Amino acid sequence: DGTVGDLLGSSVSASGTLGLVGANGDEDYTGSAYVYRSLHTATGPITQNLKLTASDGAGGDQLGSSASASGSLGLVGAIGDEGFRGSAYVFRNLDTATGTITQNVKLTASDGAKNDQFGSSASVSGSLGLVGAFGDDSRKGSAYGFRNLNTATGTITQNVKLTASDGAEEDSFGLSVTVSGSLGLVGAAGNDRAKGSAYGFRNLDTATGTITQNVKLTASDGAGNDLFGYSVSVSGGIGLVGAAGDDSIKGSAYAFRNLDTATGTVTQNVKLIASDGAGNDFFGYSVSVSGSTGLVGAFQDDSSKGSAYVYRNLDTATGTITQSVKLTASDGTGGVGSGNDGALDGDVFGYSVAVQGDQFVIGAPGKNSRMGKAYSGSVASFTTLDAGNATRFIAGLNFDSQTDWIIGDTTDSNSVFQRPGTLATVKASGKAIHLGKNASSDANYLVIEGALQANEIYIGSTVGGTLNVLQLETEAPLAGAAQLRLAPNNLLYTKANAAGITAALAALGTNPLQTWNGSAWETVTAANAASRVAVSFSGGFAEITALGRVLVASGDLNFGNVVVGKTAKRTINLENKSTQAINVTGLTLPAGFIGNFKGSLAPGAIEPVVIQFTPSSAKAFAGTMTVNSNTLSGTTRLAIACQGQHSVALKASPRSKGSVRGMGNYPAGKKITVVAKAKKGHQFVSWKDGSKVVSKKPRYTFKVSKNRKLVATFQ
After folding, report:
1. Spatial CA neighbour of 123 closest among 104, 157, 146, 142
2. What are the two backbone dihedrals, phi and then psi, of residue 283, each rounded to the nearest 5 degrees?
3. Lowest mean pLDDT among 127-136, 379-388, 508-517
């Protein structure tokens, strides 16, 4: 039911596969919010499953100014309610409700006043809610915690009020809030001449009254007007804070770890910037973190077309880092108008962002004359999808990756469908696209219905991944000169206007196709194609399969600790993963290791082979097993390791008169102590090695140099 001026996307939240999107301009700024379910399976534009409204809503309330979801519970702020005193509304059963519903409970501040702007920010985790009121007390600001939102009804006030111990007028504490578990983080972008800060609060599940922070967060390089704290997000003990004003409004964000234990005043563990950042981008206007993945919006990027940036490994990163991936709207438009809200003449994609697990939602409230729009996607779909038997769609979004794009790293049957009108770019130096990156990763699938720019595309791998497929659904989808590398027994489907290898290669344009010849990648031409690939033609598509023999040796040849003179065995498998027979001429093993196989492996055959080893001394043995064959690719080498050890066996004689301890297997030179203990009424006599007495003390210490059988005698 969207109309011009609704501002759908002014706030967004994600919880599992559910998205919550605010539209604070709806119905003359009465406002509303919309719920979208099953985002992980959506393949194109969708409309809401549910609309949320306030039972007492009125023009100017701006319901949807903030929005947050946790499980099936939603919390939506209405900053303009009652003369900008503000309020927030709780909605339950977002996973099943349909139509249009009103709130289960309304939240207000017990000490609220006009212009407090309670509801300017809101966050929920479980049944705990946190609501910001940055206008409170002459814009000193505050935040309010509410518990039991899963059962509360009517209108309720807070359980706890949060303030800054060093708060001052114009700090705007509460401009942004976030909560994870019982940990809250509150931004105060106006603090210290708009240098900004953020404050961490713990134990919000039990705190009462008015409390101050456990820890204060600042930027080590902070300066006036950085607006650090304009946006905040927390997940576990990791916090992410936006500083949209940093560096002439180019903007930045800062990640902090261990917020669940930190005290005092802390500075960041890592600073986040955009590799292509420019003045007035407003990078950091919105931020979100989930696990170790961060998402940062820059809504004024590219003439207010807007963008968002994905960051990985925030749990370990240090220094200053740039994005893993940049996201833009495939239908994005820019344009800057006049007035304070002139930026909204563009889409302002990235005005709001949310990531939870693998799912994200990005708001663009300026889209379609401020009707607004939100975009959703999967982080794994354009980074590494390796869940196994997983399908993801890339729709409505362009991405530019600075890392490898991997579909199937160690698992099978992962599929990504890049929908029409979108652009995928993997052009960073040394980065590539991998379909089935390792020997254990088969039958992965990438369908390109839009456009693709890449340096190298590996379909399968030389270590043995098979039946991986790249399908090019449109003519000339590959921009530039991507190197297409097709490993044996993997497939490439491409649009072609005729049968035969010449037409198939022509369909690839300037993108050379290469196959593996056993030692190097070799370009396929019309002249050598018959020995390199098999080509069939059906329904306007050429199916190109790389010929070759693929042998994969698998198994664990780490024998662990083995007693000298004892024989240990391990079983490995030799698998023919191709459509041609493979002739195995034998195994090459390090000295002392025994095992062999000679013969032909039929296509699809798996041959178990037993490898055995008897260590001759108590030392480390290591090396490599090699399968000798006529294979072109695969895994034909496995590491072998064994640690020979001496056995120290102990016996009490007679057992009725005493006990012993300290027996076991030990490396040569290990100093050990064995202990004999007489039972009540009896005495220890001696330790014997055969007939020889080696000690008359119950504690016998020696260096291990051979297998030994010691007897403790008692009387």
Report:
1. 146
2. -60, 130
3. 508-517
Instruction: Tell me how long the chain is.
Output: 715
Structure tokens belonging to residue 485: 């590398």
Cβ atoms of 600 and 584 within 8 Å: the answer is: yes
Q: 102-151: per-residue pLDDT in tens?
A: 999 999 999 999 999 999 999 999 999 999 999 999 999 999 999 999 99
**Which two three-digit tokens encode residue 507?**
């369909």
Of 215, 244, 379, 251, nearest to 313 by C-alpha is 379
CA dist 47 and 45 (Å) reads 7
Residue 437 Rama label (left phi>0; alpha psi -120 to 50; beta): alpha
Which tens digit of pLDDT belongs to each residue from 69-90? Answer: 999 999 999 999 999 999 999 9
d(CA 581, CA 585): 13
What is the mean predicted confidence (pLDDT) over 208-213? 98
Q: How far is CA 360 from CA 16, 295, 554, in A?
A: 9, 8, 38
Nearest CA to 637 among 694, 581, 555, 559?
555
Residue 193 burial (C-beta neighbours within 10 Å; 0-12, 13-18, 19+) = exposed
Place of tokens 């480390």: 620
Cα(668)–Cα(621) distance, integer angstroms: 13
What confidence category does residue 210 fall into, taking pLDDT thresholds of 50, 70 and 90?
very high
Q: Is the bond preceding residue 365 a cis peptide, omega within 30 degrees? A: no
- Mean of the per-residue pLDDT values of the chain: 94
Nearest CA among 448, 491, 447, 451 for reference residue 467:
491
> In this predicted model, what pLDDT tens digit does every residue of 283-340 receive, in sequence order?
999 999 999 999 999 999 999 999 999 999 999 999 999 999 999 999 999 986 544 4
CA–CA separation, 72 and 77 (whole Å):
17
Tens digits of residue pLDDT in 663-691: 999 999 999 999 999 999 999 999 999 99
pLDDT above 90 (res 267): yes
Reported confidence tier of residue 43, pLDDT bands at 50, 70, 90: confident
Nearest to 69 by CA among 3, 1, 16, 5: 16
HEC per residue, 574-624:
EEECCCCCEEEEEEECCCCEECCCCEEECCCCEEEEEEEECCCCCCEEEEE
Closest to 370 measured CA to CA, from 326, 420, 304: 304
Query: Using an 8 Å Cβ cutoff, are 272 and 255 in contact?
Result: yes
Listed in sequence order, the DSSP H helices in 153-217 are 191-194
CB 65 within 8 A of CB 10: yes
- In sequence order, which residues have a C-beta less than 8 Å from that of residue 676 and are 6 or more positions away? 652, 658, 659, 660, 684, 687, 698, 699, 700, 712, 714
Spatial distance between the Cα atoms of 283 and 705, rounded to a whole number of angstroms: 66
Closest-CA residue to 43 (of 391, 495, 389, 355): 391
Nearest residue to 516 (alpha-carbon basis) of 530, 529, 504, 532: 532
CA distance 43 to 434: 23
Residue type, 358: D
CB neighbour list of residue 122: distance below 8 Å, 6 or more residues apart: 66, 67, 68, 75, 76, 77, 88, 129, 130, 131, 132, 177
Query: What is the C-alpha to C-alpha distance for residues 416 and 423, in angstroms, rounded to an integer?
Result: 14
CA 192, 198, 202 angle in degrees (round to 5)? 140
Amino acid at 700: Y
Cα–Cα dist 591/223, whole Å: 66
